[in-house]
Structures are given as C-alpha cells and as structure tokens.
Design a protein that fits this description.
The protein has a single domain (7-246), classed as TIM Barrel (Alpha-Beta Barrel). It has 10 helices and 9 strands. The protein has helices spanning 22-30, 71-75, 95-105, 120-134, 136-144, 148-152, 162-171, 188-194, 209-217, 230-238, and strands at 7-9, 35-42, 48-50, 108-113, 156-159, 177-181, 199-203, 221-225, 243-246. The protein has a 9-stranded mixed beta sheet with strand order 1-9-8-7-6-5-4-2-3. β7, α9 (209-217) and β8 (221-225) form a beta-alpha-beta unit. α4 (120-134) packs parallel to α7. Bound molecules: SN-glycerol-3-phosphate and magnesium ion.
Length: 258
C-alpha cells in the first residue's frame, strides 16, 4: 500500500513561488500542503542544495554549472528575483535547511536526486547519507516495526539517474527509493527490483492504464508528475495511481479527491 501523501507540491510551491526555495515551501504550506517534491544537487564543495537546472541562467543569475560554485557562493545568490519582485533576495536553500523546515512543519518529502552530469554517484551518496543522518530515529523505528505509519515518517528518494539511486541504496539502505522514469520501458520491473525500489515515478503524459495496473499488481507504489488539471488528476487516480505532484497547488488542493 502507498503510505505517502496523495497530492504533493512540485518543486516546493508549484508555479506560485520561486521553485526549490524555502519561499516555495512556505507558499505550499499556506495552501495547505504537507507534502513536497524538490530537486537536490551538489555544490562544488559537495554540499547538497535545492536546484533544478544544472546551469545558472534561469533561476540563478550568472553563468556556468552549479557544480562550479561552492555552497557559500550559491547560498549568497538570489534565487527569487527571476520569479518576481516580491521574492528578491530569496536565497538558494540547502538540503539541510529544507529538511529542517519540513520537520518543523510536518511536511513529507519526495527528494529528487538531480545530479549534474558526471556527479551521479557522488550526489546519490551524499544526499542519501545526509537523509539517513537526519532521519536516523525514524529509520530505526521503521526497521524495528515496519508499518504504514513508520513508512510515512520516512522521506522518499527518487532520481532519473540509476547510478545515483544505486549509490543511495549503498549509502543508506534504510531510506526508501523510487525509480523515476519519463517513459516506462519494458524492463521497468527489473529496474525496480535491482534498485530495491518501493515505487515507480513517471510522467503522467505517457502512462497507459494497463501499465498502471501492471505496476500496482506487482505491488509497487505509482506516482506521477506533473499533473496540473483536475480532470487529468481524476483520470490517473481512477487508473490506480497512488499519488502525484502538481504545479497548480491553487487548483488542486492537498485534500483533492477524485
Ligand atoms: O520528481 C518528479 C519531477 O519533478 C521530475 O521532473 O524536471 O520537474 O524535476 P522535474
Ligand atoms: Mg523534480
């Protein structure tokens, strides 16, 4: 069974605030969301930070790869003004800050490991280790007496990078993983087994009802990104999809039911 929340705010606060920042998570919270997806990559000095793009230019001013800059340099950058004047000066959020914010407010996390090319293993390793260290008590409780409730207290790591997920598995076997794929290929079950993943996360645009049924029949969780209309949300939930993230936290509430 899917122990996690059904409706998740994509990149913190969907399209209502600068993605992957604390401002985004505050926005999600203000809209009633207690579940969040965000992207994590490494700075040049190996510190996990919240970021989607591997290069500067869209959400951060400047040029070059995120992995060219230290955490001190990145957290001094303005990650909000690209979105709107009211967010000028919103800093880049570290993974530690995000975990602390989510714990403080009772927010469940889908942590998407988003490595800059060439840093897949290192990113998977560092993110998983940081998560394991932060959730040590919850991991021990879950391993001692596994239940839906103890599973619900753990975050879920996901990644398009199998190498990152494998590294996460080695670094922190007690933190659950989800296999993330844009299109579901024929070898999906083998991939899930090899990664000892608990769920498959996929693009709702390419999901077919028969695939959804097969994944659920095999006993895995099924989660979709990024669902932005009420109609589509109802369709995929009727196919057996367990949960999804949305950019339209204003249209699809945290308590949405099909
Ligand atoms: O984790 C699901 C989704 O966020 C994947 O796509 O590009 O928005 O990170 P992207
Ligand atoms: Mg993402």
């Amino acid at each position: 069974m899917w122990p996690y929340p059904k409706i998740v705010a994509h990149r913190g606060g969907g399209k209502l605030a600068p993605e992957n920042t604390l401002a985004a998570m505050r926005c999600g919270l203000a809209h009633g969301f207690r579940a969040v997806e965000f992207d994590v990559m490494l700075s040049a000095d190996g510190v996990p930070i919240l970021m989607h793009d591997p290069v500067l230019g869209r959400t951060l001013p400047g040029l070059g790869r995120v992995s060219d800059y230290t955490a001190a340099e990145l957290t001094a950058m303005d990650a909000g003004s690209w979105f709107g004047a009211e967010f000028i000066g919103e800093p880049v959020c570290t993974y530690q800050q995000a975990m602390a914010f989510c714990r403080q407010h009772g927010i469940w996390m889908n942590v998407e490991i988003k490595p800059v090319e060439g840093f897949e293993v290192e990113t998977g390793h560092v993110v998983a280790q940081a998560t394991q260290a932060y959730f040590e008590v919850e991991v021990v409780a879950h391993l001692a007496q596994p239940s839906l409730e103890t599973a619900r207290n753990l975050p879920l790591l996901s990644s398009f990078s199998s190498a990152a997920l494998r590294a996460a598995q080695v670094a922190a076997v007690g933190i659950p993983r989800a296999y993330l794929t844009d299109v579901i290929e024929d070898d999906w079950q083998q991939n899930l087994q090899e990664l000892a993943a608990v769920a498959l996360h996929t693009n709702h645009k390419y999901l077919a009802p028969m695939q959804a049924a097969a994944i659920k029949d095999a006993g895995y969780g099924l989660f979709c990104y990024t669902v932005n209309t009420v109609k589509r949300a109802g369709e995929i939930l009727a196919w057996g999809v367990d949960g999804f993230c949305t950019d339209r936290i204003d249209l699809i509430g945290a308590d949405f039911c099909q």
